[in-house]
Amino acid sequence: MSDKIGIGLLGLGTVGSGIIHILEHHKKELMAKTGAADVDIRRVLVRDLEKQRDGHVNRDLYTTRAEEVLEDPNIDLVVEVMGGVEEARQYIEKALKNRKHIVTANKDLMALHGDELLALADRQNCELLYEASVAGGIPILRSLTEGLASDRITKMIGIVNGTTNYMLTKMTQEELSYDEALQQAQELGFAESDPTADVEGLDAARKMVILARLGFYASVQLDEVHLKGMTAVTAEDIAFGQQLGYTLKLIGLAERNEEGVEVSVEPVFIPDSHPLASVHDEYNAVYVYGEAVGETMFYGPGAGSLPTATAVVSDVVSVIRQIRLGTAKAEVNLSADEETVLKKDEDIYAKYFIRLHAHDVAGAFKKITSVFTSNKVSFEKLIQLPLDSTDLAEVAMVTHETSRSSLEKISDDLASLDVVETVKSRYRVEGGEVDVPEQRDLALV
Ligand SMILES: NC(=O)c1ccc[n+]([C@@H]2O[C@H](COP(=O)([O-])OP(=O)(O)OC[C@H]3O[C@@H](n4cnc5c(N)ncnc54)[C@H](OP(=O)(O)O)[C@@H]3O)[C@@H](O)[C@H]2O)c1
User: Fold this and answer.
1) Which residues line ligand 1 (CB under 6 A)?
2) Where, by residue number, does NADP(+) bind (predicted)?
3) Spacing, Cα 45 to ligand 1 middle (Å)
């Protein structure tokens, strides 16, 4: 095998130009880590041949014809950083059929078609690595498949979307409204002009599907993720949570036990003392529970040209090592468990924060508490504040653990009480106990 490894790049945008930068600037380290193999970019697929680009890539290598990358016998490894789903899928399939190894940063593709592409890579004895597809620069996938390979992962909770974490940080620390936080994120380039995939939680859901596959060998489809975005989050919810000792984060959660697997993305209250509560701005973090190791946390930049390119090039190094050892194959194709059983709502237990507006009248408290008693759920924290110039009071409480189905019933029962004006919001609570700020007595009697 030649010491020159031929690389074909599909895309030369934000991540692609970061890859070129790292290959240029870390050449010595890369040579050492790959056992002196040199990497050679041999073709670069772009859309626009005339566009001015960063980095020193010989313009003669640019092509708009994908076959010139996918069918070139001098290319050993195809790096897909063009994004999108359908074209990227077709190109990767073609490259695999031509026995080329693949590194991709494409979470949309890997969440939707990961199982089939990994199976194809396996059949073709090719590598297909995708570290950059989850949490950008954080080496979370390799940590699951290598660092924690000996353990049994039971739960992963993560902040895996930088846009929403930036917005929630600003809403919490600077009391910005949702719209103000979104505008600021867009001005700074942390949010796209169409932020739907981020704020609706879809981007995070894609990453959690990938994490569940690697952490649990579970085949969870995107539409099986319990999904709630952050568009309905208000400054009031955040402020009430803070008074109870919690910080609101958009959390991706994947958990398994005897009942099955659950994957969700939703705004969740985390105790202020929990490490995830101090993950601010556009940063990402994934908290992993393993049966043997206990709790570990992986933290870092979840996106950006160089952080993401670091993950891509690390995958490239890994593939090159396998090529040189003659052991290349899709070793992280830990074939997803065909029999993945999803937990039912009655088996998904959590604490919940519930905020409501109640009429400040005699007997209101008793009626509210009777809903919890009749549903056999107690609550562990509660605050109440009068609302200015109304007969209403704002009540926020945190329940003890209850099932998701029971929460639905409690919400419906509360909403039907004559003393309850509206159930304003409810959020899952994760991350253990909090140091409770002084608990206020309920004024409703
Ligand atoms: N940006 C991040 O921080 C980040 C983080 C993690 C993962 N990712 C993933 O990495 C991938 C790339 O993201 P990016 O931010 O680098 O995207 P980008 O800046 O938009 O770059 C995309 C590149 O692909 C080329 N391209 C796109 N469609 C093409 C097509 N049909 N034919 C030929 N060339 C095509 C574009 O060519 P032109 O330059 O000629 O337009 C451009 O060079 C995506 O899957 C993304 O989800 C990105």
Assistant:
1) 11-16, 45-48, 51, 81-84, 87, 105-107, 132, 136, 303-304, 308
2) 10-17
3) 11
